[in-house]
């Protein structure tokens, strides 16, 4: 096609596809709203209404502040459980990733199995795992720990696998070409090149876990989530607000510490 | 000018690792298992998992109802993705350091950090106070994190657009709105799309969690009932399989899109 | 007005480090001016001060009688539409087609809404096609720009500048990333444009032989100052080595990327 028509054609095509895309998005969105019985008007109205309500009622009062020690204790427990789950998962994921990586080539079958297991851990939501473990471990810290552990294992194993494949392949090839056996290749080529990234992923996982821990605690009756649920269900909103505030402070503090640590590690 | 990262002091890495290790071990020793037979619980869980995954069976609902539950959860995830993406597009443009003033970028990103410091489940519950437990509270509550995540992701995609392209159009007298729609958005488009799909996958699993913990309905609620009310392991297994398949499928799609967008960039 | 472009005592420093020192230069309509000098001598800065992509520290730039440095936002945009610019790294939108990139040159003429929506008139599209034919790119009209060769990309850049109907085209090292064959094609196009349409060309080059071959006038910059301003015929080895601060023989070898 030549001439102005050729130029026209490009714009007509773009407009057509753009239009189709937009219509599709609108249809899918409206369809979803119907399926979920989501009233758009109500949704948009709820937003400012809730914010106003939050400003007035969702504020800690004297009674709430009296609960602070209890809140901090629970929060500490939650943080500790999150750290435990993340650390343990990081250690195990490290081993799994080395065994399952296509770069280290430990065993061809291992790659498939480990990737599948990681997907299992990661794609079944932490909520589901929490419910499963609740059945056996009841309202102890182990329920939350195990749920976070499995979830972290799934996420970190995949992240570590990707990191190893991306960063270590060069050094590994070099050492292998020199005839180095498997274990020294891992120790001298893989580990040094991936350690900073692994640490960075672990920090990221820790931040995510602190947030998930609230959710898990809510469902399983442990940690800070349990406390929030208690106050919420008893309509003690000021205390619930204080609990939320405490969580926010911890999350932000962790993010700041993590940013600092990253600058030093990487 | 960016300050370079501080050189790592030799004692930093080992001491961080040591601290985490100590906390983990201490946690196991000190936290209360409340009289639960831990060893026995592990055995029970092992058996549970076998039943769960190898003998799934639904009792309280039919396959069709399960599909409906999944579709509802997908709908919730989709709505929160769309409602997060649209404002995030504008916010991302403002927050991109190559497009807007530095202070605005820092302000927006800081604001978003604050929003994300409150766990999603708490946002949903807070909104449920005013709007009642249901899809409205769930979608609005989930949209906070959706918006925050996408704003940061989109702004990074915009920042990666080649500076020279923007320079060329500005040098020819084009206005900023024209530069944005004709150069910045087309340039960042693959990245925008892939981040959005990644978030959709996360929003699906979050919607499952909200169904279980915050009254949003859908497959998450079925899960909560099967595990916490009927104590039916095989049903939990069936639901877990359903979620696993959908989530893994979404994750696969999202990863492929992400890799394709990265490849186009090189 | 006698001169299309007048630069008076232009200076620019970046946080105390001088990039341009008291540069004065007048360019007549239709001239083909080559600016030569080492990397970092200030050539890019000089070019970008002309259309105020870089804000000078002091001095005056007059284009078509307007004081460029005193213009408000809208007036500056208007002036920029009359100044085209091509770049060493082409600066196209890689994922878009050749035709779309060429038409981007018209965005400066549009109101906010038309520019936002990317609405181009039929005459603009016709002009785009004519330019593509002129530059030998008709076969690539639907091609994505990231799939083009360097020479083709630069021709798209030239078409994008030409569609503005500019009085002046600024060229920032346009052949530095090209092989000698493609470089000749580009230089021939630029010379032809200057001869046929009377468009003034100010081009940065670090290859002295290319400059001497194509330009009507050469301006030599060293460490931010003008060290030579005159005909290429009067340029001798001693002057060139003074501008570049090395043996001039090195500078006569073809275009190496910075």
Of all chain pairs, the largest interface belongs to:
A-B, 72 and 78 residues
Main beta sheet of chain C: 6 strands, mixed
The amount of helix of chain C comes to 25-40%
The tally of helices of chain A reads 10
| Low-pLDDT stretches of chain A | none
**Largest sheet: spatial strand order of chain C:** 6-7-8-3-9-10
Order of helices and strands of chain C: EEEHEEHEHHHHEHEHEEHH
Give the N-terminus to C-terminus distance of chain A in angstroms: 54 Å
Instruction: Assess the beta-strand content of chain A as a share of residues.
Output: under 5%
- Estimate what percentage of residues of chain C fall within beta strands: 15-25%
Indicate the mean pLDDT of chain C. 90
The CATH topology name of the largest domain in chain A reads MetI-like fold
The global form of chain A is flat
Radius of gyration of chain C: 18 Å
The end-to-end span of chain C amounts to 38 Å
Question: In DSSP terms, counting alpha (H) and pi (I) runs of 4 or more, how many helices of chain C?
Answer: 10
Largest sheet of chain A: none
Question: If you consult CATH, what is the topology of the largest domain in chain C?
Answer: Rossmann fold
Structural domain count of chain C:
2
Assembly state (oligomeric):
heterotrimer
Could you give a short description of this structure?
The complex is a heterotrimer of chains A (266), B (266) and C (258). Chain B has 266 residues and is mainly alpha-helical.
Walk me through the topology.
The complex is a heterotrimer of chains A (266), B (266) and C (258).
Chain A: H1 4-35, H2 40-57, H3 62-66, H4 68-100, H5 108-123, H6 126-137, H7 141-177, H8 182-220, H9 223-233, H10 237-265
Chain B: H1 12-30, H2 38-54, H3 63-95, H4 102-117, H5 120-131, H6 135-159, H7 163-171, H8 176-213, H9 219-228, H10 233-265
Helix pairs in contact in B: 2-10, 3-6, 3-8, 4-6, 5-6, 6-8, 7-8, 8-9, 8-10, 9-10
Chain C: E1 5-14, E2 17-27, E3 32-36, H1 43-50, E4 58-63, E5 66-67, H2 73-81, E6 83-87, H3 98-103, H4 112-117, H5 122-134, H6 150-162, E7 168-172, H7 180-197, E8 200-205, H8 208-214, E9 217-222, E10 225-230, H9 237-244, H10 248-251
Parallel strand pairs in C: 3-8, 3-9, 6-7, 7-8
Antiparallel strand pairs in C: 1-2, 1-4, 4-5, 9-10
Question: How would you describe this structure to a colleague?
Answer:
The complex is a heterotrimer of chains A (266), B (266) and C (258). Chain A has helices at residues 4-35, 40-57, 62-66, 68-100, 108-123, 126-137, 141-177, 182-220, 223-233, 237-265. By secondary structure, chain A is an all-alpha fold. Chain A has 2 domains: 4-57; 64-265, Orthogonal Bundle (MetI-like fold). The N and C termini of chain A lie far apart (54 Å). The mean pLDDT of chain A is 88. Chain B has a single domain, classed as Orthogonal Bundle (MetI-like fold). In chain B, helix 3 packs antiparallel against helix 8. Chain B starts with 11 loop residues before the first helix and ends with a helix. A 6-stranded mixed sheet of chain C has the order 6-7-8-3-9-10, sandwiched between helices. Chain C has a 4-stranded antiparallel sheet with strand order 2-1-4-5, covered by helices on one side. In chain C, helix 6 runs parallel beside helix 7 (180-197). Chain C folds into 2 domains: 1-82 and 167-251, Rossmann fold, CATH 3.40.50.300; 91-165, no CATH class. In chain C, strand 9 and strand 10 form a beta hairpin. Chains in contact: A-B, A-C, B-C. The interface between B and C is medium-sized, with 24 and 36 residues.
């Amino acid at each position: 096609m030549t001439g102005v028509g050729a130029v026209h054609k490009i714009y007509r095509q773009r407009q057509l596809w753009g239009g189709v895309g937009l219509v599709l998005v609108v249809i899918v969105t409206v369809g979803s709203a119907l399926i979920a019985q989501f009233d758009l008007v109500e949704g948009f109205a709820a937003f400012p209404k809730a914010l106003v309500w939050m400003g007035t009622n969702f504020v800690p009062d004297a009674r709430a502040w009296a609960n602070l020690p209890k809140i901090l204790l629970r929060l500490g427990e939650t943080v500790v459980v999150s750290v435990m789950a993340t650390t343990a998962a990081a250690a195990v994921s490290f081993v799994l990733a080395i065994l399952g990586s296509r770069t280290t080539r430990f065993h061809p079958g291992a790659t498939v199995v480990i990737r599948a297991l990681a997907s299992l851990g990661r794609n079944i939501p932490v909520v589901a795992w929490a419910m499963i473990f609740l059945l056996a471990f009841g309202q102890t810290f182990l329920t939350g720990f195990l749920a976070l552990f499995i979830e972290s294992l799934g996420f970190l194993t995949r992240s570590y696998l990707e990191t190893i494949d991306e960063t270590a392949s060069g050094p590994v090839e070099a050492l292998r070409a020199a005839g180095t056996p498997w274990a020294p290749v891992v120790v001298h080529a893989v580990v040094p090149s991936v350690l900073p990234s692994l640490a960075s992923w672990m920090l990221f996982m820790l931040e995510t876990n602190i947030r998930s821990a609230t959710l898990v605690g809510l469902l399983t009756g442990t940690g800070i989530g349990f406390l929030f649920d208690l106050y919420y269900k008893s309509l003690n909103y000021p205390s619930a607000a204080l609990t939320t505030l405490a969580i926010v402070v911890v999350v932000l503090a962790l993010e700041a510490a993590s940013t600092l640590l990253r600058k030093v590690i990487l | 000018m960016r300050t370079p990262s501080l050189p790592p002091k030799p004692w930093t890495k080992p001491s961080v690792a040591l601290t985490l290790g100590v906390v983990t071990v201490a946690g196991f020793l000190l936290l209360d298992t409340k009289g639960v037979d831990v060893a026995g619980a592990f055995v029970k869980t092992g058996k549970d998992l076998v039943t769960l995954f190898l003998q799934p069976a639904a009792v309280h609902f039919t396959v069709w109802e399960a599909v409906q539950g999944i579709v509802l959860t997908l709908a919730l995830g989709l709505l929160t993705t769309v409602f997060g993406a649209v404002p995030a597009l504008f916010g991302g443009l403002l927050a991109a350091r190559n497009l807007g003033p530095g202070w605005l970028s820092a302000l927006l990103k800081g604001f978003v950090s604050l929003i994300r410091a409150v766990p999603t489940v708490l946002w949903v519950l807070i909104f449920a106070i005013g709007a009642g437990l249901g899809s409205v509270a769930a979608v609005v509550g989930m949209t906070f994190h959706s918006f925050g995540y996408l704003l940061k992701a989109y702004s990074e995609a915009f920042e990666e657009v080649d500076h020279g392209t923007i320079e060329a159009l500005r040098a020819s007298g084009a206005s900023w709105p024209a530069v944005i729609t004709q150069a910045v958005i087309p340039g960042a488009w693959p990245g925008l799309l892939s981040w959005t799909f990644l978030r959709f996958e996360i929003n699906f699993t979050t919607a499952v969690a909200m169904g279980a913990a915050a009254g949003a309905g859908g497959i998450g609620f079925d899960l909560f009932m099967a595990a916490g009310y009927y104590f039916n392991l095989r049903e939990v297994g069936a639901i877990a399989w359903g979620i696993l398949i959908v989530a893994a499928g979404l994750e696969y799609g999202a990863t492929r899109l992400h890799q394709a967008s990265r490849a186009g960039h090189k | 007005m006698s001169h299309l472009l007048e630069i008076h005592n232009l200076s620019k420093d970046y946080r105390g480090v001088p990039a341009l020192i008291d540069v004065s230069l007048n360019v007549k309509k239709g001239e083909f001016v080559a600016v030569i000098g080492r990397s970092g001598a200030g050539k890019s800065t000089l070019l970008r001060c002309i259309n105020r992509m870089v804000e000078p520290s002091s001095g005056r730039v007059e284009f078509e009688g307007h004081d460029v440095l005193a213009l408000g936002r809208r007036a500056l945009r208007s002036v920029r539409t009359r100044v085209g610019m091509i770049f060493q790294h082409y600066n196209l939108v890689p994922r878009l087609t050749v035709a779309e990139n060429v038409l981007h040159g018209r965005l400066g003429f549009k109101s906010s809404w038309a520019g936002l929506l990317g609405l181009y008139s039929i005459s603009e599209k016709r002009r785009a096609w004519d330019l593509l034919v002129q530059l030998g790119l008709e076969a690539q009209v639907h091609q994505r720009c990231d799939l083009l060769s360097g020479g083709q990309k630069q021709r798209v850049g030239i078409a994008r500048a030409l569609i503005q109907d500019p009085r002046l085209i600024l060229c920032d090292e346009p052949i530095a990333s090209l092989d000698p064959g493609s470089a000749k094609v580009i230089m021939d196009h630029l010379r032809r444009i200057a001869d046929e349409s009377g468009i003034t060309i100010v081009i940065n080059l670090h290859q002295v032989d290319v400059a001497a071959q194509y330009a009507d006038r050469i301006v030599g910059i060293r460490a931010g100052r003008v060290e030579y301003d005159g005909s290429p015929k009067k340029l001798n080895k001693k002057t060139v080595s003074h501008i570049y601060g090395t043996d001039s023989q090195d500078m006569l070898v073809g275009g190496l990327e910075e």
